[in-house]
Predict the 3D structure of the following.
Amino acid sequence: MSSTRLEVKNFGIRTASGIDFHLAPGQSMGLSGPSGAGKTLLLRALADLDPHQGEMWLDGVAADDIPVDQWRRQVALLPAESAWWHDTVGAHFRLQDESWLSDLGFGPEVMTWQINRLSSGERQRLSLLRLLVLHPKVLLLDEPTANLDTDSTALVEALLRQYRNDRQPAIVWVSHNPAQLHRNCDRTCLLQNGGFSTADPISVSERGAP
Amino acid sequence: MTIVALTPLDLAMASGLIAMLALLSWRMRLGLGPRLIIAAFRTTVQLLLIGLVLKALFTRVHLGWMAAIAAVMLLVAGREVMGRQKRKFSGWWGFGMGTLSMFISSFSITVLALTVIISVEPWYTPQYAVPLLGMMLGNTMNGISIGLDRLTTSAWDLRAKIEGRLMLGYTWTRAIAGIRRESIRSGLIPIINSMMAAGLVSLPGMMTGQILGGNPPMEAVKYQILIMFLIAGGTGMGTMAAIWMGSRRLFDERQRLRLDRLRK
């Protein structure tokens, strides 16, 4: 078994270049930087939604050797603004594990709800569920709690922590909230001025309770 | 039956309508006056020119001449398809895809009609080939330009949804299937509507022309039915081909949605 889940080498996007990092299974990397630095662009390139330079590997297999729809299913991007195309929540995905609904503060009836009556916070939480049911190996989270209040934020973080324990995904977590990155990530990186820098690992003792 | 020949004076009287409309447009500040005059002028000049060309062509029945005029008609129609797009494909693609799909559908169906259905001898007899091809091109052009316009504007407006599907591991064909279907539908609806209304609401132009020209109504009707079927077939297949090529072009080899391939 490979000890590197996601490896990125010499990666270049429109706003930055020379991006190198690798993540072990279960490892979580926080990504911060000023707006416009290209955090969202980097996540999109990692999901292979935008053209980019450089190479990446999933469990040791080069991206080019994996059909791109399977790549995106395994290297899953949770965008800041989720898109929905059917009328009801349930038409978008099927839950194997109903307990995930209650973990996020929903009852089972939520699957019959109309999309256009959801609040932005509900959309965000449900889009996370829609992504997790695919059991991705890498999670690219673009401000996953931006529209959420404190309680919902705690629920989302707890679910992500549980998924991380169960499935050992690698995580790239974009947030403007240093405390959140501190709670949820092993290390943080900074994207600014066209460059990518790795900060010191956050020591385990400083991390919040698992 | 004799044909009542139109004199230049007759046409001049009809042009009075255009002058009146231009005057009204000027009074109502529609800003259409100059364009209206130019359009009327272009109609006159273009039709007179094509009349001269046809007159010359009819006396020299030769495949080479026929091919030349067909090529000119195709290229002009291709340019017209381009001109009607709000968001065109950049480079040669915009022109090429519309033109190629018109070529595939209009040409093959016209040749089929000439050789198998009407079976004139030789099959490229300009008297049949030019009007048939003209009608095919004119109508497939409509379907293709409406369909392509719908495809590119929808892709532009619904980008978040298309990419949302890609993010969940949909293939590009599944991610754009709904938009593709809607685009083909919108390209086909005009011809379906005109088949529905034919004879009840509108007397199709070709039939009207034949009857005015002194042909027996039933002969004109039979030709019109033939034409309607050919047009429907050509529009349908041409639109499908164009939408297939267009939607393929919206994605690259890694199935990324490439809206940068559309001109701003």
Notes: The two ends of chain B are 56 Å apart (CA to CA). The mean pLDDT of chain B is 92.
